[in-house]
Amino acid sequence: MTPIMMVLDTNVVLDWLHFRDPRVQRIADAIAAGAVVPVTALACLEELRRVLEYPRFGLDPDARAELFNRYRTQVLLVEVSDIVSPELPKCRDGDDQKFLELAWQARAHSLVTKDKALLKLTRRVARLGRFAVCLPEAVVLKSIFA
User: Fold this and answer.
1) Structural domain count of the chain
2) Spatial distance between the Cα atoms of 100 and 133, rounded to a whole number of angstroms
3) I need a surface site. Which of 24, 45, 73, 91 has the fewest CB within 10 A?
């Protein structure tokens, strides 16, 4: 079975690897089983590295490096073109556009997010028929494990 490529936004990555949020457990299990491959791009990695330094997470430099490296060893790094995909809707939060572009250019199955600005684009992105934008608990994994 060919693994499904999935984009996880920064908050979902934190829920998976730092907070161990049960709403992300099905995705974590699918990644561990090799049924899902998370994909990322340099800009997304840099955002994660920056966010891990926020004091509210209480991570010392070793813990930040360990979490970042654990993520980095489990993802497929995809080169994303600077050329904007004209079909994609524009996210109200320009910082989140990189996740849409990544999902589009990597031909990902879905972009998993809890970000309200991205979730507002769910229907518009679905009409394009290329990938889904969804909450972690709404990811459809039936076809992955069927």
Assistant:
1) 1
2) 9
3) 73
CB 111 within 8 A of CB 132: yes
Tell me the CATH number at 129.
3.40.50.1010
Per-residue pLDDT of the chain (146 residues; tens, 9 = 90+): 789 999 999 999 999 999 999 999 999 999 999 999 999 999 999 999 999 999 999 999 999 999 999 999 999 999 999 888 899 999 999 999 999 999 999 999 999 999 999 999 999 999 999 999 999 999 876 544 44
Residue with tokens 């998370």: 38
Cα gap 100→90, rounded to integer Å:
9
- Whole-model pTM: value is 0.93
